[in-house]
Each structure stands twice: as structure tokens, then as C-alpha cells.
Design brief:
The protein contains 10 helices and 12 strands. The protein has 385 residues and is of the alpha+beta class. The strands form 3 sheets. The chain has an 8-stranded antiparallel sheet with strand order 2-1-12-11-10-9-8-7, sandwiched between helices. Strands 3-6 form a two-stranded antiparallel ribbon. Strand 1 and strand 2 form a beta hairpin.
Length: 385
Amino acid sequence: MRPIRFAGLLAALPLLAALAQPPAPSGPAIDAEAARLMHATEAQGLALAVIDDGRVRHVGAYGKRNAAGEPLLPDTVMYGASLTKAVFGYWVMQLVDEGKLDLDRPLAAYLDRPLPDYPTLLTSHSWRHLANEPRWRKLTARMLLTHSSGFANFAFLEPDRRLRMHFDPGTRYAYSGEGLILLQFVLERGLGLDVGAEIQRRVFTPLGMTRTSLMWRADFRPNLADGWTLDGKVEPHDERSKVRMAGSMDTTIADIARFAAGYVNGEGLSLAGAAALTQAHLPITTATQFPTLQPELPPAQRRADLAAGLGVVVFDGPQGTGFFKGGHNDSTGNTWVCVKAGKRCVVILSNDVRAERAFPRLVEFILGETGAPWRWEYGEMAVVR
């Protein structure tokens, strides 16, 4: 009888997690809390969306989009930063579903010549830096999507600005935009895909994301968000001229809400493909996400509830399994946190990096305590409550 009872308990876990979820606050209550936290952090602009039961339930935009004081609106174009990586993972799984890509086939098999023989195309460095590094041949799409390539975040951060591998690929997590750029290159050169056009056709258009692009569009300019840095200075929006899957996406809070809903509903994917995105593929063994390439913690100090998904990070919390993805630069702070039970998410885009101090409180206010690993994501940042 024990196996039967145990099986029954496993079947009941999603229901128990759903019962642990507090009801979502009303729209006006969310708006009021967002305004309070913006005041507390001095953030000038913030937008958020709430997804519940796989549907967009609330979209709000608050504050300013630029120094002239023009209002931030739900259709204001904002920088998506590294949320781009989650979009990339979603589209890559469509290729996997269709048999065009194998997550575990060495990427070298998709190229018609060795990687170091290719000229520089997408990056500021040269693939030739890997000429004496045979481990590049072990790299797979799964390794690059789980940030286990062995590369630094970007080669230009290396002291000599040369691309190198710091550990055997697939053996540990170390955040690397460079790995996503390599995967983009292989899909473009090896499979002959125009990544920007394909994601527009396969993701943005079907989900109704009409004001989202992986490259700058001139029609964004009339309603575009500039950004504010930690010291309160305004930075103009960067008009990115290249598709870079490490983080070139422009979007709006209304559009990214549609993506989040499509993602949790598995639209455009098989059941297995959708599930693979947020499975625990690789343990995370560091105290924080940044600096990348930091030493691993001793096994006894590692978090058993934290792992790399495909383009996202997976965690276990009081409401069951969840996942999240952040995005950041000097004047941008973004986050996307979901709880699988109930298909509930909060997406936040801010054109003021100071707003990040409010993210843990704002997500908790809407979803309740999720167990999202804020300290791992942001380190010892002083959180506003």
C-alpha cells in the first residue's frame, strides 16, 4: 500500500501548491503598491504585467519614459535586455520539436568547417581565439542554453579580450551571453536560418507582439523609453542595429505579457518541448549569479532548489516549482517570475535600474512568497519593503 499512497501524494502536490497560493490583489491595489515602491526607490519609470491561469490579468505602466516627463505607457517600447535569452530558448525548442536541432548533438556537427576558421560576424572577438582549444567541439545547444559553455559572460570582459574556455563544457553553471551568441551563429551558419526573421515569424507575430523586435525599428521612436542609471542620470535608448540573442530585444510591457502567457501555456510547442524549457537541467553551484566564473560553493552549501533551465533559472518554493529570468544594464532592470501551479507570473520592465530594489517586494505582493532566489540574482542589494 505504501507505493499507492506515495503515488497519490505525488499526484496531489500540484493541488497542494495551488492551495498555498494567495489570491492576487486587485488592479488598483497593484497600481498603488507599484507607485509606493517607485517613490521609495526614486525610480522614474516602471511597467508590470500579471498572468494568472495562463491569461494576462493586469497590465500597468507608471511614471516617465524620458527626461521630458512624457508618460510611460503600456505600449511604450522599452529595452528587454536579457529577457531576450528566454525568447531565444522558446524558439530553439520549436526547432527541437521539429527535429531540426538536437540539444545534445555537438554543434561542430552543424558547421561545414571548424569554428575557429570562421571570420568574426556577431561578436567583437574572433572565433580564432579557440584554435588551440579542442573543447569547443564538445559544446551543445543544451550547454549554451544552460550557461555551461565555459566562456566568460562576454569575451571583452577578459583581461586580454580573448575568448577562452575556463572549464570543461557542461560541468557547471556560469552565466555567459557569449554562449548564446555562439548558438545563434551556429543556427544561422549551420542551419541557414535568419534568426531575427524566424523569431519574428514564429514567436512575435503569432503572439501578437506588434511592437517587439530584435533590431531597432524607426517606428518605435515616437513612444520610446530612455533610461535612468543608479546616480539618476538619463541614458538615451540604444538603437541596436544587430540581432544578438544575448540581449538585443526591444519590447513593451503589453507585448512581453503576451509572450509570458504564451510561454506558460506552451503555445507553439509540444507538451514535451514546453516542459523541457523549465526542467532542472543543471545544478547551480555558486552563491550568486554574478560575478560569473566565481568559485563553486562546497557541496554542503549549495542550494538544492536551484537549477538551470533552458534560457531560464528554475527554483522550488512554497508554491511549488517556479522559474525566472532577469535582465539588466546600467539603466534597465527587468524581471520575470512564474509559479507553474496556476500558471501565474509577474513581468516587470523598468527604465530605471534603481527599481530593482523593489522587485522582491512587488513580486511577493502579487504572487505571495514564491521562493524566487533574489539574493542569488542580485547579491546583497538593499531590498525595499
